[in-house]
Amino acid sequence: DLNTEYRNQLSDLEKNENITLKDYRTKKANLEQERKSKFQAILTLDQKNKIAQAKKERREKREMMAQKRIEKMKTDLNLTDAQVSKIQEQRNSAITQAKAIRENSSLTNEQKKEQLMNLMKSSKESMNNILTAEQLKKKEDMRNNIINDMKNKRTNKDS
Q1: Are 109 and 10 in contact (CB under 8 A)?
Q2: How far apart, in whole angstroms, are the C-alpha atoms of residue 31 and residue 19?
Q3: Mapped to the 3 state alphabet, what secondary structure does 29-62 carry?
Q4: Which pLDDT score, from 0 to 100, does residue 44 have?
Q5: Do residues 116 and 98 touch, judged by C-beta distance below 8 A?
Q6: pLDDT tens track for 58-73
Q7: Distances from the Cα of 24 to the Cα of 12, 18, 27, 50, 144, angstroms
Q8: Neighbours of 73 (CB within 10 A)
Q9: Residue 79 class from Cβ within 10 Å (0-12 exposed, 13-18 middle, 19+ buried)?
Q10: What is the CA radius of gyration of the chain?
Q11: Cα-flanking dihedrals φ and ψ of residue 78, to 5°?
């Protein structure tokens, strides 16, 4: 019922041709916030705890996967300990900045998305500054191999 009500309100908002883009985004954000509040009010304490536990588990899994990626990069690209340390510092900084962007209630979802995209772009540039030219080439070659493998799997799957 909650989702149906939200979709109907959103549909009505989208049909309104006399509204500015700024007002549309503001009203959409308000609808999303209202939906989230109503959803939280419906949940029991046990359900809220389960959601919190699932979030914690996902965060731990992301951390573990990130550590595995760094270890793989270390061996595949022959990274030095100093480079690994810089990459981890850069990653932690990006995570902190992304969290601040997501939690900034004064930004619209569009603004958050734009700022997160800029953060990803600057993080990639920062990463490229840490690596040597040889390491960058090897990284790009590895990336292209993965893309080609994925294309081949898709082609074979479609055949």
Answers
A1: no
A2: 15
A3: HHHHHHHHHHHHHHCCHHHHHHHHHHHHHHHHHH
A4: 93
A5: yes
A6: 999 999 999 999 999 9
A7: 11, 10, 5, 34, 41
A8: 19
A9: buried
A10: 22
A11: 55, 50
What is the residue whose two structure tokens read 């900084």? 93
DSSP annotation of 19: S
Measured CA to CA in angstroms, residue 79 lies from 73, 74, 125 at distances of: 7, 5, 17
For 27-58, how does the pLDDT look when each residue is reduced to its tens digit (9 = 90+)?
998 999 999 999 999 999 999 999 999 999 99
pTM: 0.64
Reported for 126-131, long-range contacts at CB under 8 A and 24+ positions apart, including other chains, are: 126/90, 127/87, 127/90, 130/83, 130/86, 130/87, 130/90, 131/77, 131/79, 131/83
